[in-house]
Recover the amino acids of this structure.
């Protein structure tokens, strides 16, 4: 096993192109995790930018990406004093697997919030959380991340969904890699879909995910709070807030996704 | 004055290109409103798609767009059974003014939410709201939209910001155009920046804005609820939820923006 840094590394190949070798350690089932892919896209965007951090990333996932060679194409679109923007595409087997718009900037690591909303409540202390792994097919990803779930939000695992689209967990990498911009990319897409707590089961493909890096995270575990507002016509939204060990909001994401259908009896056969 | 439909119309020009004539009615100061530009981008994306609605739109604004001719370039990237995605760019004077990722799909107009969170509280009945227009420079846009603001969130106009990053308002078009996907694009970027209630003043440039269309809106006024989570290092986030006259969440947006600095005494001279 290689560390998270090596697994997300990109090598410049000239003219805005970067090579990557996508790592099987971040598979969930047959597909590489979207957060892992966003980390790779973010590294390429920062490598092509004068700035240090991927402060805003919007992604469309087109196709499943698989372990092995891939290419990231970075097209710079605007370079300002404060921020730079680029269109960034992950290409595998000659086809776009994901398109992103990434804004890079250099966050002030000493900035204190001028205003901050309250940390969401509900994530119990670590010792009251459960290390229960997500269901079968998730073992690759679960080997890399140490997640401890709020048991109140994991009843769906035992067929007792809570009825509220919420999932909460503590998060860190097993390899000891400290939280940074790219770990945040992984964290915002690490929770099981919140609609599992509404009785949905199975794969919930992300249609669009946007995440913003709000601060450079302090060392330690991250607290993830996932929630949704509406499930309608098979579409749901999922917000994830990521708080660092000092209680600071370090990342926020929203994705629009397709809900798996709740199984009917005939489909369970 | 022409109506909203004509002001956002696009004409196919072949090979994924669409012509538009951007309308001075949507100026805020010297810049066309970002929501108006998103409406134009959305019309081109839907024109190029087999689907009826722009369900997800992520935009980077690179340069101020001005009234007059512009071109929208649509690059289809993936066409699936349920949804299609495209990269969409607004070009003016030969340069990209905005880049977008737009997912189109056809929402089921009869779908009832399987789950919905509560409508945010705080927007008073219409008769208790104020038609007070935003400060100088906004008259173009304010001529098109009829907005009635919650007075509790407009103290910043008189130098008494509330101290909470919130703005709430009723919204409709003055020309009688009923709410639709493109009116929603306008609505999600229509509120004054929520950080004005934290003492900031002036222009707050949007770095990235993503909005999702969640339902086809019913006729009538829309209720807009804007709020933010963190202002730090000059960066702030703003969420806008849009609810229709039947109390249904029809759109949700988040933008990352740069906060104008609170003026110091010397800057007020």
């Amino acid at each position: 096993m290689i560390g998270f840094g090596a697994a997300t590394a990109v090598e410049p190949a000239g003219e805005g192109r970067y090579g990557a070798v996508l790592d099987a350690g971040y598979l969930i089932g047959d597909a590489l995790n979207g957060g892992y892919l966003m980390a790779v896209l973010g590294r390429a965007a920062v490598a092509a930018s004068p700035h240090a951090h991927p402060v805003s990333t919007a992604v469309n996932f087109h196709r499943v990406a698989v372990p092995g060679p891939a290419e990231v194409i970075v097209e710079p679109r605007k370079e300002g004093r404060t921020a730079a923007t680029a269109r960034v595409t992950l290409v595998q087997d000659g086809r776009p697997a994901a398109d992103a718009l990434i804004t890079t900037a250099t966050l002030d690591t000493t900035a204190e919030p001028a205003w901050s909303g309250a940390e969401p409540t509900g994530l119990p202390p670590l010792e009251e959380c459960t290390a229960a792994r997500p269901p079968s097919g998730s073992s690759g990803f679960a080997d890399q991340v140490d997640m401890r779930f709020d048991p109140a939000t994991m009843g769906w695992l035992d067929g007792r969904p809570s009825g509220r689209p919420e999932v909460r967990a503590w998060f860190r990498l097993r390899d000891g890699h400290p939280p940074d911009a790219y770990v945040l990319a992984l964290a915002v897409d690490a929770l099981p879909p919140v609609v599992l707590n509404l009785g949905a089961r199975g794969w919930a493909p992300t249609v669009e995910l946007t995440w913003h890096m709000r601060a450079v995270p302090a060392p330690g575990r991250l607290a993830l709070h996932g929630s949704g507002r509406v499930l309608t016509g098979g579409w749901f939204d999922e917000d994830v807030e990521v708080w660092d060990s000092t209680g600071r909001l370090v990342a926020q994401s929203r994705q629009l996704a397709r809900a798996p259908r709740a199984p009917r009896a005939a489909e369970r056969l």
Summary: Helices of chain A lie at 4-7, 34-47, 139-144, 181-187.
